[in-house]
Amino acid sequence: MKKEEKGVWSWESKEELHGVYYDYLITRDGEEVRSADPYAKACGVNGLRSMAVNLKKTNPKGWEKDQTPKIISIVNIIFKKLFCRIIIFQFHFIFHCLPYPFTAPDTPSAMIKILLLLYRIYCYGM
């Protein structure tokens, strides 16, 4: 590897390395330590190894034509996200903080049904 400005290390290859796993062997305090690349774009299971990836090869068909959804109202988006958080907190409270009869699997209360319905409407648009 070649040391460059600002503590950056680099390495170039003429081969196509798409899909090849790699990691670093670093000597720290006299001990060799294996490490993943903190700047990798892809990794293996649990992030233990880095993977060289050509992102153009991973794009699905039509990716270049894909567009982000138009934002109708930022206030609407914030409201929905906030409402979802409130609903999730209420579910947590109902299932973990109230007495056992409310949490018994065969006794769904009307309140839980209403909260679930509201959660579906505001988070998923029904």
Q: What does this molecule look like?
A:
The protein is α+β, with helices and mostly antiparallel strands and 126 residues long. The chain is built from 4 helices and 7 strands. A 3-stranded antiparallel β-sheet has the order 3-7-6, with no helix packed on it. Strands 1-2 form a two-stranded antiparallel ribbon. Strands 4-5 form a two-stranded antiparallel ribbon. Helix 2 (74-97) runs antiparallel to helix 4 (110-124).
Q: How does the SSE layout of this entry go?
A:
Elements lengths: L1 E2 L5 E2 L10 E2 L1 E5 L2 E5 L6 E2 L6 E2 L3 H4 L15 H24 L2 H4 L6 H15 L2
Antiparallel strand pairs: 1-2, 3-7, 4-5, 6-7
Main sheet summary? 3 strands, antiparallel
Computed over alpha carbons, the radius of gyration is 25 Å
Q: In percent, how much strand structure appears in the residues?
A: 15-25%
Uncertain runs are none
Report the principal-axis shape.
Answer: elongated
Largest sheet, order of strands side by side? 3-7-6
Average residue-wise pLDDT: 78
Topology order in helix (H) and strand (E) letters: EEEEEEEHHHH
Which percent bin holds the helix content?
Answer: 25-40%
SS element count, helices? 4
Beta strands, count:
7
Content-based structural category:
alpha+beta
Report how far apart the termini are.
54 Å
What's this, in brief?
This protein is of the alpha+beta class. The protein has helices spanning 55-58, 74-97, 100-103, 110-124; strands at residues 2-3, 9-10, 21-22, 24-28, 31-35, 42-43, 50-51.
